[in-house]
């Protein structure tokens, strides 16, 4: 063996590794900086053992390695063990309404994260309806929660629900976050935006854009803080963007494709940073 450990087909495996795009759609090269060659080799050997003999032997042989979403293991599993991709894929459940399903936001989030993303969504829905046993939305939500081991549950309220029905919003937020925690998932609030400034909708409803933004933003941040949840503050980005009109659908309420892409990137970034923090 001349003191060296073979890793697959040598340079061809390494080139294959560099072509793989990881979780959160970033190049492998970004993560390769955390891998010394000996650690890389050890991880790969451990993964081979895990595939052949099960986790028990791997953990006994390599007790310092941690599985799950350790970026080092993701590199190896996705590069060399394609059959394990589905089994180890992150799972995200999105609960909300048309602000989430417009422009296929779940698909955009899946493309950015490499996760399996499923939505329980209905136009105009409020979060409390996900918990109402008389509502079909609740029945589907219960079934989805029972089907998979979700890693993240993304919560999105009706565009005016946070300030028109604050008690219902905070009660539903508390209960859904509790459910998420009990099943080992991390709750993420998808903080939405005020209607388009100067648009027909906000004018007809006689709402003030700045006041609407402040009410929505404050409510989401309070819900996240009260429930120790993550928050993807999409609304703040809509509010401060240099070209906010480009983020809106012509109806002045829903997001444009650009707005949905921005929302997906912010949610993905929050999840990405949370996954990184687990490694520290």
Q: CATH-wise, what's the superfamily of the largest domain?
A: SGNH hydrolase
Annotation field: number of helices = 15
Structural class: alpha/beta
Q: Can you list the strand order of the major beta sheet? A: 2-1-3-4-5
CA radius of gyration: 22 Å
State the distance separating the first and last CA atoms.
35 Å
Unreliable stretches: 1-37, 55-85
What would you note in describing this structure?
The chain is an alpha/beta fold. It folds into two domains: 11-86, no CATH class; 89-277, Rossmann fold (3-Layer(aba) Sandwich). It contains 15 helices and five strands. It has a five-stranded parallel beta sheet, with helices on both faces.
Features:
280 residues; alpha/beta; Rossmann fold; five-stranded parallel beta sheet; 15 helices; disordered N terminus
Summarize this, please?
By secondary structure, the protein is of the alpha/beta class. The protein is built from 15 helices and 5 strands.
List the helices and strands and how they pair.
Blueprint: H1 11-19, H2 28-32, H3 37-53, H4 55-61, H5 71-80, H6 85-88, E1 91-96, H7 98-101, H8 105-113, E2 116-121, H9 136-147, E3 152-155, H10 161-164, H11 166-182, E4 186-191, H12 200-204, H13 209-226, E5 230-233, H14 234-240, H15 257-277
Parallel strand pairs: 1-2, 1-3, 3-4, 4-5
Helix pairs in contact: 1-5, 3-4, 3-5, 8-15, 11-13
């Amino acid at each position: 063996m001349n003191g060296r450990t073979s890793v697959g087909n040598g340079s061809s495996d390494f080139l294959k590794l560099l072509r793989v795009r990881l979780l959160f759609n970033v190049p492998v090269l970004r993560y390769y900086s955390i891998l010394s060659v000996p650690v890389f080799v050890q991880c790969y050997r451990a993964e081979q053992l895990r595939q052949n003999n099960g986790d028990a032997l791997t953990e006994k042989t390599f007790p310092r390695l941690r599985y799950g979403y350790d970026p080092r293991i993701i590199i190896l599993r996705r590069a060399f063990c394609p059959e394990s991709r589905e089994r180890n894929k992150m799972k995200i459940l999105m609960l909300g309404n048309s602000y989430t399903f417009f422009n296929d936001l779940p698909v955009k989030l899946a493309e950015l994260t490499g996760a399996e993303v499923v939505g329980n969504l209905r136009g105009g829905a409020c979060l409390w309806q996900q918990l109402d046993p008389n509502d079909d939305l609740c029945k589907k939500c219960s079934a989805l929660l029972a089907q998979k081991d979700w890693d993240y549950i993304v919560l999105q309220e009706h565009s005016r629900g946070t300030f028109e029905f604050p008690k219902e919003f905070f009660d539903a937020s508390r209960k859904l976050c509790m459910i998420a925690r009990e099943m080992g998932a991390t709750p993420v609030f998808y903080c939405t935006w005020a209607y388009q400034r100067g648009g027909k909708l906000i004018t007809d409803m006689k709402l003030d854009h700045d006041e609407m933004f402040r009410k929505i933003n404050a409510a989401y941040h309070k819900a996240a803080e009260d429930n120790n949840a993550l928050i993807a503050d999409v609304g703040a980005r809509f509010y401060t963007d240099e070209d906010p009109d480009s983020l809106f659908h012509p109806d002045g309420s829903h997001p444009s494709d650009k707005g949905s892409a921005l929302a997906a990137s912010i949610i993905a970034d929050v999840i990405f940073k949370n996954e990184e923090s687990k490694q520290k």
